[in-house]
Amino acid sequence: MKKISVAILGATGMIGQRFVQLLEDHPYFELSGLYASERSDGKQLHETLKIRDHQFTEDSLNMRISAINIEEIAHTSRVAFSGLPSDIAGNIETELANAGVAVFSNASNHRMNDDVPLLIPECNADHLDVVKEQGSFANGGFIVTNANCSTTGIALPLKVLDNAFGLEQVIASTYQAISGAGYPGVPSLDILGNIVPYIKGEEEKMESELAKILGSLDNGKITNSNIQTMVNCARVPVVDGHLESLILRTSRDASVEEIEEVMEEFRGEPQELQLPSAPLHPIIVRHEADRPQPALDVLAGEPARARGMSAVVGRVRKKENYIKMFVLSHNTLRGGAGGSVLNAELTASRGLL
Amino acid sequence: MKKISVAILGATGMIGQRFVQLLEDHPYFELSGLYASERSDGKQLHETLKIRDHQFTEDSLNMRISAINIEEIAHTSRVAFSGLPSDIAGNIETELANAGVAVFSNASNHRMNDDVPLLIPECNADHLDVVKEQGSFANGGFIVTNANCSTTGIALPLKVLDNAFGLEQVIASTYQAISGAGYPGVPSLDILGNIVPYIKGEEEKMESELAKILGSLDNGKITNSNIQTMVNCARVPVVDGHLESLILRTSRDASVEEIEEVMEEFRGEPQELQLPSAPLHPIIVRHEADRPQPALDVLAGEPARARGMSAVVGRVRKKENYIKMFVLSHNTLRGGAGGSVLNAELTASRGLL
Amino acid sequence: MKKISVAILGATGMIGQRFVQLLEDHPYFELSGLYASERSDGKQLHETLKIRDHQFTEDSLNMRISAINIEEIAHTSRVAFSGLPSDIAGNIETELANAGVAVFSNASNHRMNDDVPLLIPECNADHLDVVKEQGSFANGGFIVTNANCSTTGIALPLKVLDNAFGLEQVIASTYQAISGAGYPGVPSLDILGNIVPYIKGEEEKMESELAKILGSLDNGKITNSNIQTMVNCARVPVVDGHLESLILRTSRDASVEEIEEVMEEFRGEPQELQLPSAPLHPIIVRHEADRPQPALDVLAGEPARARGMSAVVGRVRKKENYIKMFVLSHNTLRGGAGGSVLNAELTASRGLL
Amino acid sequence: MKKISVAILGATGMIGQRFVQLLEDHPYFELSGLYASERSDGKQLHETLKIRDHQFTEDSLNMRISAINIEEIAHTSRVAFSGLPSDIAGNIETELANAGVAVFSNASNHRMNDDVPLLIPECNADHLDVVKEQGSFANGGFIVTNANCSTTGIALPLKVLDNAFGLEQVIASTYQAISGAGYPGVPSLDILGNIVPYIKGEEEKMESELAKILGSLDNGKITNSNIQTMVNCARVPVVDGHLESLILRTSRDASVEEIEEVMEEFRGEPQELQLPSAPLHPIIVRHEADRPQPALDVLAGEPARARGMSAVVGRVRKKENYIKMFVLSHNTLRGGAGGSVLNAELTASRGLL
User: Between 20 and 30 A from D224 (CA), which of C23, C159, D43, D136?
Assistant: First the structure.
C-alpha cells in the first residue's frame, strides 16, 4: 500500500518535533516536508532540538525546515499535521483545507466550530462525520482538531464513566507540565521550585471542550453534554505529563471495583480497528497507593508506537456520593501530536485520505 | 513582665528549628532548652541545620540539644513547643502535661481528642476552653494542638466564608511542599521533576480536622461542622508553601467582590488582642491573574514577626453556584511552628500560662 | 547631609529590581526615578516583579517606570545605576556620562576600557582613580563598572591569596544560577533537571576581567595581572547564587589553616571606611564538610544591608602544590546591584559625587 | 549456546534494578535470582521500583526478591552482579568468590586490591588478568570491580588522550546526579534548587581509581599511573548523568581537531569483540556550542543495548598549553550496572565463565 504523504507544520516546536518522532517509519504516512516560520527557513532539525526523551534518526536530525508555503504543501502533501501556535494557525489551516489538504491540528482556533470535529477516537469517533459539512470537503480538504492537552487525558475516563454510570459533575484541578507551554515557554525563574496557579484561557477551554467531546451526534450535529464542569489549572515544575485531580459525581452508584473495572476493560474504535498508534489499553488503572506519577507513568502505553498514548488512572476512591481519582496523560503525545496522528489514522481507515 | 520559659521538642527537625527561629527575641517567651532524641544529645544547632531562609543568631546556632527528659523539662519550662514526629509525640506530650507543662503541639496524636482544642486562633479561639476538661489542667498541664499544615491554610478563608455565606461543600486539591514531610523526608529521586499524588493519611486528616475546627462550641463541647469536604492531596517539588485549589458551594449567593471583601476585611481575636505573631491581615487577597505563588507569597504577613502567618488567596472566581480560588500558606510557619506560637500567645493572654 | 539623587536604569529586570531593593531607605542615596525601555513606560514596579526573596515596600511597588530619557535623567539625578542589557547599555551609559551623570554599571560594554575602573572595592579601590582619565570627568560624568557576576565572587578570595601567597594559576568551574541570565532568561525546558555547560562569552569575560581586577595601578594606568586563568562555565537549576570550584597554585606554600586565616581576617577599604553596604566579613570561611551551598549561604553577610555581599568559602584543602576550595557568592547582589551600590558608596566617600 | 546463570545482589536499589533492566533478554546471561537484604525478602520487583526511564517487562516486575544466601547463589548462579552498598558488599562478595562465583561488583570495597581488576574494558582490558592471582580463582570464583560512577565517564577520554598525547595533569570538577547516591539517597530538602559541593570520599576515590585504571600491567602487576589528578565533587539536582568539567595538560601539543578526532575514532577491545553491551562509539564528540547535557545526552549509545554506554564529550577547546572540555556519562549504566555487564561480557569472551 502506498503511504500517504504528510507535511509537518511548526517543526521547530515541541509538538512539531513530536510529530517527526511519531512519523519516523510510520506504516500509513511518510514525510514530505517540515515547515515552520520564515525565521527557521533552511535550518536542520538538529539545530532546533526540543525533545529530551527521543533519539531521532540521523535522517530526521538532518531534515531541512522550510518556510510555510501553502501551494507547495498542497502540491506535495495529502495531509498536514499542525503544531502551529494559535496566533497564526487559524488562517494557515483554513488555507490548506481550501487547497485540498486534510489538516490535523493541535491549535485551538477551529476546535469549537460546529463543522470541525474535536476528536478523541476512543471517545467520539462518530464526530468525525461533521467534516463533511466543511465547504472544502468536496475538494478533499478539511480540518480535524484534537483537544487541549489537559482536556484529552481526562476525557478518556470521563467518557467511559459517563457511559457506564451517568456523569453529573466533574471537578478537576490540574498539575500541568512545562512542555505544555511550548518552547521557550515558561521562564525557569517562574517555575523552578514554584507552582503557578494560572494558565491563560486553559480553564475555559477545558470546560467548553469537554462539553463538546462528551456531546452526542444527532443528525450530523453535535449537541454539547450538560455535565457540570469546574476546573482550576496550575503549572508545575515537571517536563512532561499532565496530572489531574478529579472529583466526580455520577447518577448511578458504583463500587470502586466496578469503576476500576469499567475503565480497565474499555476498548474503543481505535482498538477494534487496531490503528497503529492505538494503545492496547486506552486507560491503565494503577492499584498502588501513590500512582500515577509523571516520572513513572508518562510513557505508559503499548505497543512501542503507542508509548505515551494511554491515560493512567490511580487512587480511585469513593467518598459519600463522589468518586475521587487522579489521572495522568502525556501532554505532547496523547494530548498533542500522538492524538493528531491517531485522528489521522482513524480518518485514513474511513477512506477519507 | 517576666518572660515565660519554654522548651522546644524535636529541635533537630524542620518544625523544631522554626520554633527556634520564632522564639529568638520573643516578647512573651524565652528559651529554656532544646530537646530531641538521644541520637542528637550534645549536638549544637548549627550541626543539624534544616532551614534555608532564616539566618539564625550565633547564640541560636551554638545552643546545645539535649535528649528529652520529662523531669528536667517540667522543672525548667512552663511551656513545651512540640515538633516531635507522631510515632513518639503522643506519650511524651501526655507525660509533660501530667507533669504540669503546657504543651503546644504540631503532632497529630491528640488532635481529635474531645478535650484537646485543635486551635487556629482566628477561627476558633473559643475552643481553647476545652483544655479545662483535661485531667492535668488542675496542675497547670494541658495540651493544645494546631492542625495539619494543609488544613490550617484553608481553614482561615473557609471559616470566614462559612460565617458570611454558609459553606455547604468544600472540594480541595493540594500542591504540598516537601518541607511538610520533615527531614530527611521525601527522597529527591521521588520528587525531582515529579508530582506524587499521595500523602499518607493526609486527606483523612484534612477532612476530619476541618470538621472539628469549623465546629461550634456548645456547653463546653465541640460539635463538628457538617460541611461536605472532599480532598485530593499531592506532593510537589517546592520547598515551602502549600498551595491549594478550592471549589466551594455556599448556601447564600455572593459576588466575587463580596467574597474578596469579606476575606480582606476579616480580623480575628489575635488581631484584636494584638498578639505578637498575629498578622495584621490574616487573609491577604491578591488580584493579579497568577497569584498566589509559593515563590512570591509564602512569606506574606506583617509585621516582621508575622511573616509567613497570612493565608494568601487569589484567583477568586464564580462559576454557576460555585466559588473557585487558590489559597497559599506557609506550611511550617502558619501551618506549623508559627501556629503553635500564636496558640501559646492566645493562651498566655487568657492568663493560662 | 543631603542624599544623592539616583536613577535606576533597567528597572523591569532582575538587576534593576535589586537596585530598588537596596536603595529602599539608603543612607547616601535617594531614588529620583525608575527607567526602562519604551515598552514598560508607565508600568508600576509590582506589575513586573522579578525578585522572590524581598518584600518591597508599598512605595516601591507603586513606583512608576519611565522610558529612558537622557536629558531628564541628567536633570534629576547625580547618579545612574545601570542594570541595562549589554545590547543597549553601551551608548546610553556613554551619553549619560557625557551629560554629567556618574554611571555605575553592571553591563559588560565598558568594562575593559583603559579609563574605566572594573571595581570591587575590597580588591582594587585604587583603580577608581582612572575615572579621572575619562573625557566627561571634568563635567562630573563618568562610568564605573562592576565585574561579571561569576568573576566577582572569586575575585575576593583570589586577591587575598595573591597578596598573601602569590597566585600563579587559577582553574575554575562554575555552577551558575539562572538569575544570572536575567528574565525571562533561561527557558525552563532547558534547565529543569538539567545542567547546561555553556554560557555565551562567560569564560572569556571571566578570564579577561580577572586579569584587570587583579592588575596593578601604576602611574594612573592598570597593568593586567599575568596569573594563568582557565575557566569552564555551566548553568545549573538554582535561582540565586553562583558556586565555583577553584583549584589554585601559589608561589609560596601555606597550610590550610594559614589559607583560611588570611581569608577570614581580610578587611578591605570598604570595611575601614564602614561603607553602608560593606559586609563586616568580606570573606566568610565555612568549616563544615559540605558548605558553601546556595540554599544555605547565598544571603550571607552582615549587617542587614550587606546580606548577600560576603563571598563564602568552604572545603579548603591542599593537594600537593595546589589549593582546592569552593566559593559561593550572590550573583545579583554582590555580583550585581550590590556591587554597584558599594562602588557608588566608595566613590561618594572619595568626594566624587 | 547455553546462557550463563546470573544472580543480582541489591535488587531493591538503583543499580540492582539497572541490572534487571540490562539482563532482560541478554544474549549471554539469564537471571537465576534477585537478592537483597532480609527486609525485602519476598517482595516483588514492582513493589520497590526505583527507575524512571525503563518500562520493565511483566516478568521482571513480578520477580520475587530473596534474602541473600551464599549457598543458594553459589548453587544456582555462575555469576553474581553486585549492586550492594559498601557497608555489606565487602564480605558477601568475598564469600561468593570463595564459593566459586564470579562476582562483578559496583561496590568500592575491593577496588584497590592488587589482585582485583578495576575494569573498564575499553581502557584496560588487559588488567582482567590479575583475577588469576585471586586465591579463589582455581575454583572459578573471583571478583572484578568497576570504577566509581564519576571516575568511569572521564576514564574513557583520559585513556585515549593519554595514549595519543601523553597526559600530565587532570583537573576535574563534577556535576553529579542524585541517582549516584542510591535510594532514598539525597533528601529532597538538601538538593531541590541547590548544589551540594561535597560527596563523601568521592574525590579521594576518583583520584586513586584513575591512577589504577590508567596504570600499566607489567608482569601481572598493575603499576599506577603518575598523572597528577585533582578533583572537586558536587551534587546537582539532576536525576541521571554525571557531567564533568575537565582541564587537562598533555606532554605533546595537539589541535582541537586532532583531539576530537582521536576520541571520535577510538575503538577498544569491546568494539573489536562486538560485545553485546559495547557501544559502537565509546566516545561521542558533540560539536554544538552547549553540549553535552544530561537531559539530552545521558542515554547516548548505539545499538539499543548500549544506550547510556557512550561517554559524550563536548566543548573541546584549547587555552595556552591546556585542553578544556566537558564529559557526560550515565552514572548507573556506563558508570554502574552497564559497566559491570560489559565487564562480564569481556570475561565471558575470554572463556573465564
Answer: D136
